[in-house]
Amino acid sequence: MKNTFLLLYFLLFTVFAFSQVTKDHDSTAIFVLDKMADIIGDLESVSFDLNNSIDRINTENNIEKHYSKCSVSFSGPNKLMAKIQGTDGNKGFWYDGEYLSYYNFDENNYVTLDAPETTLEMIDEMHINYDFQFPAADFFYPNFTDDMMEQFDSIQFLGKKLIGDEECYHIMATNSDLNVQLWISSKTYLLPKHFVMIYKNKSNLQYEATFSNWNLNPNIPDSVFDFLPPPNAHLISILKKS
């Protein structure tokens, strides 16, 4: 009986261990993701526009699309400016390496918060503490490809496809919860052009975004990242998430 139990335990452990490590990651897809991450990581500054849509369930239990457009600028390791306009309102973020300022254009109010010393640390901390969302931030993390490989069971190269009039590499990454598809420009600079996230366990709700107007290594004055409250703007306070 004991030998039977040990054999069953060994078989179950083997199957479990195998299921934990088995992943299907296409080498071409990984190569394209690595090249894109390397190019973005080597930039000293960048600006781009992002048009996106997000699905939400409304009060009548129907899927409703919400649209927004963003203008984003990064400079060095500790400068960020993002302005967002959409159905959820008009707002902006300014980060100068010491402070993050959030301004609501519609309500004419703002808050300024102490922030970590680098942009990526700031993004992480502000998302955790205040649920601030920074457009397309994932693409700027140095471990982007490794994070994709860790999170997704399958990463496949689906060939070259046209987005508008631009030829792109099409990559799909899937796990039990998500289907993520990326279209990365096949031009000299392999930059993201379009991406879609499909939430399998949430009625296949989608987040979709298109990049445009990439400007690589522009000379952006530091003053762009300094926030100056408009006349009559109200200083507010916000609480950290519990």
What's the short story on this structure?
By secondary structure, the protein is of the alpha+beta class. The protein has helices at 2-21, 27-41, 119-130, 144-151, and strands at residues 24-25, 45-57, 63-75, 80-86, 89-95, 99-104, 109-114, 154-163, 166-174, 178-185, 192-199, 205-216, 234-235.
Structural features, described:
The chain is α+β, with helices and mostly antiparallel strands and 242 residues long. It has a single domain, classed as outer membrane lipoprotein receptor (LolB), chain A (Clam), CATH 2.50.20. The chain has four helices and 13 strands. Strands 1-8-9-10-11-12-2-3-4-5-6-7-13 form a 13-stranded mixed β-sheet, covered by helices on one side. A hairpin with a 4-residue loop joins β3 and β4. The radius of gyration is 21 Å and the shape is globular. The chain starts with a helix and ends in a 7-residue tail after the last strand. The relative contact order is 0.18. The N terminus is likely disordered.
